[in-house]
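Re: the request from the purification team.
They wanted to know what the chain is likely to look like in 3D before they choose a buffer screen. I agreed to run a prediction and write the result into the notebook, where they can find it.
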Amino acid sequence: MNHSQAIELLKTLISTPSVSREESAAADIVEAWFRENGFVPNRKGNNVWALARAWQPQKPTILLDAHLDTVKPNASWSRNPFEPIIEGDRLYGLGSNDTGGSLVAMLAAFSELAQGEQPYNLVMLASAEEEVTGVGGVRAVLSELPKIDFAIVGEPTSMQPAIAEKGLMVFDCVARGKAGHAARNEGENAIYKALKDIEWFRSYQFERVSPLLGPVKMTVTGIQAGTQHNVVPDECRFMVDVRVNECYKNEELLSEVRSRVESEVVPRSTHLSSSYISTEHPAVRRLVAEGRVPFGSPTMSNQAVMPFDTLKLGPGDSARSHTADEYILLSEIGEAIDVYKRMLDNLIIDKTEI
């Protein structure tokens, strides 16, 4: 698939609404593309993947992943989000930047790399439900894939390698007191108990600071307490958004938080982990050799649920994602195809232990 064919495929995908959990029609398009190009597609839900030919079990395996789904278009769009329009070098449309450009560029690179023998096996995955971190997305198919040794996750990074990515935990916290009448010196005010812990979340600095991602960031983002003006509340609930750097495992950080606050702390999940890959990894070294600059990404991707080495790399600009009148540059897609091919052609990586 050449550059112009990749653009036509992206226009077709933009024309096909694929909001998270409603990606079936877009998955059909990718599945048909695999068949038309001589690959045998596999599908689970709205996730579609294929293996390159000449599979050899003794080789390490590389995964290319880009998601099919988009967010819902916001009300600020000045044009039809599902109508692909080219103006100069810009292609407008929902999902063009996040992350249709990565998807079609990866498919183009995959189709060419799969024609010859490589020192690795190659898998191409178009995944679902990334925007909502859904259980029907990439997590649903990891056990169906061959053992992966390294993955490239397509997201808009301006084709600069994101070698670290912040993880996420959301805490639901409860401070408990004792109800009483506000006019008398009764009860234990749960709000006052919560205030102490809220101040701790606001001001505490974790010791380990990442040179790429900075410190762990905790933000109290909601609070709820009280039923009427004359009753001392016996419960105060608040939630905390926690962005985790690669210096901490989620469970380790949760344990430290619980040891320092009085409130009950319940994480909604602990599986959205921070990720990091060494600058000495062969793929990163190739990118650095051609002048690309590794960085740490504050935004999450499918990397958060992948338990193997990952690198985030794709065309477009993260600042355009989830915005009205989203677009990608046609030249960015052409550049991405070339970079993916140069990085992957005859790339030698180690096969990791099971």
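For the purification team: The chain is about 25% helix and 25% strand.
Please add any questions underneath this entry.
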